[in-house]
Amino acid sequence: MFSIDDIREAVKRKSMLIIVGRCRVEYEGRAASHLGEGERLVIIKEDGSILVHRPVGYEPVNWNPPNSKLDISEEDGELVITSMRSGERLEIRLSEIKHFASFDLVDDAEFEMYASEAEMKKAVLADPSLIEDGFKPVEDERQAFGSGRIDIFGVDLSGRFVIVELKRKEANTQDINQLLSYVESLERELGSRPRAIIAAPSISRQATKIVAQAGVEFRCLTPRRCMEVLRRKKGLDAFLKER
Amino acid sequence: MFSIDDIREAVKRKSMLIIVGRCRVEYEGRAASHLGEGERLVIIKEDGSILVHRPVGYEPVNWNPPNSKLDISEEDGELVITSMRSGERLEIRLSEIKHFASFDLVDDAEFEMYASEAEMKKAVLADPSLIEDGFKPVEDERQAFGSGRIDIFGVDLSGRFVIVELKRKEANTQDINQLLSYVESLERELGSRPRAIIAAPSISRQATKIVAQAGVEFRCLTPRRCMEVLRRKKGLDAFLKER
DNA sequence: CCTTCCGTTAGGCTC
DNA sequence: GAGCCTAGCGGAAGG
């Protein structure tokens, strides 16, 4: 079996702890919550993050992020785990522990993610014709005109300014509003209204209406297409380097 | 020890599985990712959700939501867990298993959350003076004017329309833009510009500028204050019922 | 630090 | 099912 000292020892050693048991959970901080008695999985990680998982659902029912401070105690025969963080307090009272284990895990691997919006941006900068022929991104891309950051800012064949908003999935009304706030901000700044292009794999029907009404243009652009462009470019770079 | 059949059996029994071991993870679906070899915690829940947790961080590095389909197999001496879902595939290849356990957890408790935006809305409907004296929410509150849903729609003392946007934490520029899109949509619909009020515990400096420029009004309203109003109202209801 | 915005966001609610 | 919004969102990136 194990004692409260085993748990304290594991916490101090900065191991990952797994506790399965019957518990109640109270949270108070940015909001507040109460969870009555039931059987759950509690995970405590070496960075001070803590998760309470119910038997179903993707999300933890309660948690505290990394760098929370732990306190382990015993009260009325219950194991009490308290996780504290500026302004937030999570208390888990375990009346019965079905399982306890601790591990010192080694995990240095890189996590690589593909098909993100950042990759779409790279692809458009590498091949601006993905937006339209003659589109030229403006070199200095750190454009923060009062209200937010523009994904890509450039000029079209006729020299007119173009704001491009990228989305890796279907564009919705919120996305169009975001783009329009950039347009208006930039219009005030430059005196003329720039073109606005939303580039996404698809667009919601509702958003289509706003797009039509506000003169925004839609370009179909998928993350997959962008990955292909980047792969081709990478291949070309390698080829040029070899020569 | 345990065999692959133990794991299959636990999955079939719809238990919660906990596996700690050395693994690689591939994901392909809405995006794609690759995670090289390292030691992690894998959780499989009875509803088909699956989580891969690294030794640090609040979030799982890879996952699949509830109702994913599981396949357990053995390849090249590795335990291969595949989780599939419409258009998404998660593959975990375990080269070494340090720990395996399964549990049939019982958890029927209610989870109660307080201080949500929904509660703020209830409080304002119960006591509209939280917005201002004479404010009257319009009964028919299902207001979806082309672009999104308005939190609370009403009239002020002078009979002018008022749009109220509630936020449980500091209001930012995005929130103001959202409110303004409602204002403009409604202005087109009604012919006159309604008042716009953002009710939140605080407002960011950036948002303050837009508020001033666009004629939006800010009302300080905290979730805590709303909870007190609701508690008082509940108390009153109970008192009236007792008589 | 503040601000902004992405995310395999998830999850819920409404039409 | 489609669309929209909240979340104790978390996390990263930029100023």
How would you characterize the overall build of this protein?
The structure is a homodimer of 243-residue chains. Chain A is an alpha+beta fold. Chain A folds into two domains: 4-103, Protein Yojf, Chain: A (Distorted Sandwich); 117-237, Trna Endonuclease, Chain: A, domain 1 (3-Layer(aba) Sandwich). Chain A is built from five helices and 13 strands. In chain A, helix 2 (117-126) packs across helix 5 and helix 3 (173-190) runs parallel beside helix 4. Chain A is elongated. Chains A and B meet through strand 1, strand 2, strand 7, strand 8 and helix 3 of A and strand 1, strand 2, strand 7, strand 8 and helix 3 of B. Chain A binds a DNA duplex (15 and 15 nucleotides) through strand 4, helix 3 and helix 4.
